[in-house]
């Protein structure tokens, strides 16, 4: 079994159903149908084998037909499909064998009522890529606008309306009379021919501007077109195409009138009456849309502000601080409802005149970009094993909780009380997030960057969950927990009442939870966290930390060394030595006595250390992006980045592999190759029998969740041999999903054929115990200062060390 | 309850975040328990100027429970009702004593008051007329306690320094029984709340003896040894347990179980002088119940509340003088504490003034009179349509909640409009340094602080420098402000040089920084002294 999710909801504009009760959203290979009342997914249309690029709902021909739910979808796999999305059922497939970037169907928008009885052909205008003529033509103009006869299921032969370098967005006017594209600084507008005959001549005009145009919109009733450009201007042409689209002999007329008439603001003798400009947006305009009555114009862009222009007066109203660049604005047939899609994968349903949010369809948030200095602080992803949730940091200083099984956002926790403004310099970064095993407690750390050396701040915050629904509330803030040094890792103790935070400043702190139960109206637990102990090892930066499964041992990586501590008494137990480069990730392997350490840098390494022998058991030279271990078994999974050279040749663009190991065995038990492994994360999830359907009558023990760099994820059973291939579908993925039965063996042979060459496996080397009992005075003062052993203990240990002693090894 | 509904079902797309100062660490104090809330709800009134130590306090068993205080050679009666009004003068005073009054006791109907003094005389007064009705003279030495039995109006119990406990027939002014057995001064005693024949006395010979008048040869029925001179002894309301106070401890004994010690409470630091039974009204899940506590006062100035059901001290309260006596009114509304320097701390709880106290003290039990429930207005009633804004919601009403408006401070408004410099100046004009630092931090995150500094005009720069000179060395803010101070001086050196007031600010700044340097130097010296010691200690 396999579960995919985390797909982008905003790759293409969504579409409302005719009764405005459903919203059709393109989610990679499928179209998901959401209810606008609840914001939850109802069903999905599955059938396309590549990214769905357009969805067009068939409008009702009469008011009674409003309940009909038919739509056309176009996809990069070269098919156009016709669906009844209420059932859902595929009605018809048209294969035109060229990828479709965009499709509009203008003709059914203006079918006159009396024509209903007559059967007419339905035409769509599609933006395709010409795959055949690549050799002959210049590569530049390969994207074509073509006409497609949907009734007869074929492209209209040899009719190419226009060609561009890049796929552009076809925009159709609400009246269905015109459609247009932007092409650099030009607008091209075509008039849809009246009669639905195939080869009717399509007339077009071009409007010019000096800046690159980003988006266009047609007025619903008048001959007005609006366009936004990269500098944030909005241009409105009125009366476009009066000449060209007027009569049959338009061309001659145009020349005549040009000389006489005064056309304010219109460039280059374009065919329009006037052109006005509005400028409010500071960056490019992404959203332009006229209201259905044509009185208002909605615009939005990178600032994340929706601006409502009154068309006649130019007065503005704002919906500010949306927090993410706007991508699409869709009006619904219901005048009180509309939807905006934001770049952070959220679709907000707006109650229209007041512009309040009714519901949010919350997709997984996109990874946030970090400044260079904060790279390598981890990817800010934490898995809640029991509930099947993932907590990830988002750009607007939140932690989003996303249900992996339900594929929807559960809640958001505002970590820093700030509004995010897209486009601003990032000055506050949530660096780490950790969840306790039961998911009821959370710890986050954030960094405020200094302005020219003053005002930097590191914060550690502890959160507690409310009774339900992952509503976290802040319980403790610690300012500058490690003075001004940054926090490298935060980890919860398995029991949940202890947290360790390690810092680059050379120390780690153990925080303990004091919970006072206040008996007010209901039982209310109030947690407060205080520092329990501080430890350091030779002033080295502490780079990673992990608790063992029973919580009795704390492992803290001091750059290349691993120090083991008793977390309760804060006593240094042992020091394991030396990897080549600093360790960035530590993980105890389930209940077994093994510890996996991943180090990065010029000499990356994955090493597994045996706790019983206090020695290295095996290691590989691999760039490890993430390590996850199951709670109650000894196996663990590592996400390794492939070297650049091998990924191109043998893995077809896949840049990472997931390796499933048994802790004692250096040979991986299973291998899957994946795409976009950079910034990915792995997590084992415990199986809740109710949420997972059974496969072959048995439920899997654990599930492995892999999330790639774009936050698309897949959840699968790592021990099931059938689903050996994990290929994360992606936006640009033109190649179809291929299923290789024995992909694991293939990958193993390709990488580990030359295993002896770069393996640092040293199984036979006699292990050198770096146990402190031999020379205790060297390590005894490396611990925290407040926790010196009593003098009586020190004295005996010291005297014993002076004496010649038969070591345990001799026996 | 009324159902609460939001005014609109939409959410605002953007939240407004105020500029808040950093949180300060809170002192980790224990949250107030309901019990300590109850005990501190007694509104304290001082009754001063009572000449000398308050040797005894007693509440009348009949409502409205006036109380009598014995001090020096007089007994004063106070009305608890007047305490609420702040009137602290006694309602009446009896002063027909020849020596210091040691103990007083009301009869069970509250009409008579018995008082003993150190001359060895026990007198019985009519409370209303304050005339001595009987004079009981038999003790040869000072009398230390006198007590009316709870269920008996005819007899009286007294004990004194002659080590004899006497049982009196009040009407005939004659001694019924002479109970001898104590080997030292008898200091205290109490009568059983369930039997008119049983009573206990405590003595400086460390023992507490239980007496029964029905026993033939006047011997004690039971004897327990407290281990210290016994200062006070009381029966607990069940009649089966007694509590004794002596030394630093209060001990609870089980009489039915043959004088077994149940618990010893030793949380006082000095001698416990007096104990009494207090009651607390517990409200759990709506129904009220009364629970008994032992109130103990001691010379250390503490009053402790001891829950002898759970055997732990639930509340403790400090007073500024050694405490000598304590009593608690039967209607649970007043507690009085007498000190050794003539002050009575009377505490009174708010409550219904005219509550018919059936006397929780009574053995018959306390029955609360249920009040008729007030009914909410119905739509059938005419007045329903004349309700105003202040009308409380009734059950079944839909409550439409208006979204709370966020109150923005001036600097918040300016920051919202991106007027960064104005925001900084406006917050500098206010006197809250937390807010100034918070605004500075916000400007840092917007990367606008240094720009603001460079845009300040001379007066505003003066404000900033004044703020910096006052606060730059404060440890909480120094990490930000010291850096900022350096930048400000560096950036605005020209302006500072050309203006005299700014120079003055710089001088102040210099002074405070020199002061801070001196402190740091001396701290370093101390550290220099300590660290080798620590190292030696660690090496050993």
Automatic annotation (TrEMBL), chain A:
WD repeat residue intervals: 278-319
> Where does this protein come from, organism-wise?
Hibiscus sabdariffa
Matching entries from SMART domains are given as: WD40
Domain WD repeat-containing protein 75 second beta-propeller, first and last residues per copy: 396-655
Compartment(s) of residence: Nucleus, Nucleolus
In its UniProt entry, what is this protein called? Answer: WD repeat-containing protein 75 second beta-propeller domain-containing protein
Keyword annotations: Nucleus, Repeat, Ribosome biogenesis, rRNA processing, WD repeat
Superkingdom of origin: Eukaryota
Task: List the taxonomic lineage.
Answer: Eukaryota, Viridiplantae, Streptophyta, Embryophyta, Tracheophyta
Q: What is its main location?
A: nucleus
Checking Pfam families in the record gives:
Beta-prop_WDR75_1st, Beta-prop_WDR75_2nd
Automatic annotation (TrEMBL), chain B:
Question: What InterPro entries does the record point to?
Answer: U3_snoRNA-assocProt_15_C, WD40/YVTN_repeat-like_dom_sf, WD40_PAC1, WD40_repeat_CS, WD40_repeat_dom_sf, WD40_rpt
Q: Which UniProt keywords apply?
A: Nucleus, Repeat, rRNA processing, WD repeat
Residue ranges of the WD repeats are: 136-178, 179-221
Its main subcellular localisation, reduced to a broad class, is nucleus
Give the source's domain of life in one word: Eukaryota
- Per the database record, which ranges form the U3 small nucleolar RNA-associated protein 15 C-terminal domain? 392-533
Any signal peptide, and if so, which residues? none
Q: Which SMART domains match?
A: WD40
Q: Where in the cell is it found?
A: Nucleus, Nucleolus
Read off the PANTHER family from this record.
U3 SMALL NUCLEOLAR RNA-ASSOCIATED PROTEIN 15 HOMOLOG (PTHR19924:SF26), UTP15 U3 SMALL NUCLEOLAR RNA-ASSOCIATED PROTEIN 15 FAMILY MEMBER (PTHR19924)
Provide the protein name: U3 small nucleolar RNA-associated protein 15 C-terminal domain-containing protein
